[in-house]
Specification:
586 residues, alpha/beta, 26 helices, 10 strands, elongated, P-loop_NTPase
Amino acid sequence: MKNSNIIDKPRKAGAPDLLGVDDYMKALIKFVETCNMPTTIAVQGEWGSGKTSMLNQIKHEICETGLNKELDDKLPYYGIWINTWQYSIMKTREETLMAIIGGLTNEISKIIKRKHETQSQAVLNKVSSLFGKIAKAGAKAAVSQIGLEGDLIDAVIGNGEDTVDLLNFKNSLQEAINTCLELDKKQGNNNRGFIFFIDDLDRIDPPVAVEILELIKNIFEVDNCIFVLAIDYEVVVKGLVPKFGPLTDKNEREFRSFFDKIIQLPFSMPVAMYDVNHFLIQSLEDIGYIDEKFVENESMKDRLTDFAMLSVGTNPRSLKRLINTISLLKIIGEQKNENGKQVYELVVNFGLVCIQIAYPKIYQALIEEPDYKSWTDKTAKKMRLIELSESQSIALKDTTEFDEEWEIVLFRICQNDPYLSSRAFQISLLLNYLSEIVPNNLDFGDEIARILGASSVTSVSLDSIPKQAKKGEKIRFEGWQGFEQMLKGNKAITTFLPDLKTIHDYFETEYKDLIQFNYTPNFLTIACKYPSSRSRTIIFIRLKKESVLFEYSGKTVLISIISDFNDTVKSELKIRFNELSTKQLK
């Protein structure tokens, strides 16, 4: 059985390299193996770009596990992992800093104790004693934050005469680490030192993240130690605003100087170089969305990658969300017996979901007006879009992305949103690619509307919830249930609903997967799924007061009671179907 989703977890140690980042990881490892210490490396990237996965792989390749002595003796570093987010949950700023100091200290002590418990006991006791004093001072600061009186604080944590000296604590850590490495050498193990992997700094409050960086610099930057930090530079900028004020051209150097003071090697995740095609195709195969036959279609494979790159981009977390959405829609289709989709349907659906996730306002515009290639100035007025200036109109005519009327309407939609405005060319290219996928013998607007109906259930926009249609709007519903719910709000037709359901069920049973339904507030359309020409509509069923009007083959038939839907009408509709379809009904 295929898996239904791609878990949004960092790449496990030793797992296959689907994004093509191993060369960068190996280069970082070579740097680490030969660098002077202490050194701090910043693995930078936006949230979800793969920073934790990179740290996982480095730790796996060069750090002891404590589980296999023979293997550990060949690895050059002790590895310590600190998830700052976990240390900060339900804690104040002071408590978070103390928890991280304690976490780092405890992890160092555990390793040294495991390796050389007897010989290192004296230095470990010294570290423990000094940390105890720091913990008391930290506790006192934390308790004072909640407004307790000084005498009560002293009663809780004691009021000794000893003073806390962070320099002594730092020196005791250095002594403990040196002792561990010296004892290693006597045993024939040439460990170079300790690597501290500091993760999830971009998930905590930016000012606290900055304080953690300062903490590392002032307390834990000791010989034979390397810090590898997963962080987004934007978090550092936000955290420094209280200190330097908002970032401007004038003070940008101050922000950069702070970062450079702590970080000796900045490394940015190579998201632009990710092998998205490999990751995407492999993941879509894993969830059963595409099969081996599809994979052989190079042009369609490339279109999937194009759609992803023009929308969600190369961020692994965004790609996983996209794939999981596709998987759910596939399962819904299977539950509705909509199997055996053609290649073009799979690709169009993928492209529409890309738009849904990356550009929800464009997706909503498609919901309202699916036949986007027919968008005109009238459409723009209906959407209440801002008129273009004369200079904008002239400039657009010189671009291939906005030289058609519908593309100009798209441009006007994008101008209402700063993000869409910055991505207008990508959106235009995406929609142009999408229009090339739908076969010429099909009604373009109907196909987009049909496939949109299936994808709307995964939209996070309230606007995509079916609503009563205003004059001139095109609203479509996903399945009979949504259609019926809308009709129940129309009291005039309520009495005819059971008969309409009987008619609907007849078509569904008799024609099975050879037809498709399009549901709108004013009519029900039944279309041929495998048309022999561009004409594919079998019948329009217009909703009237306590009745419906059948329109097909140039004639109209009023259906007031279910007996009006007689064998003559059914026979005529079968003839109409066989005239339109490549697959005949007996």
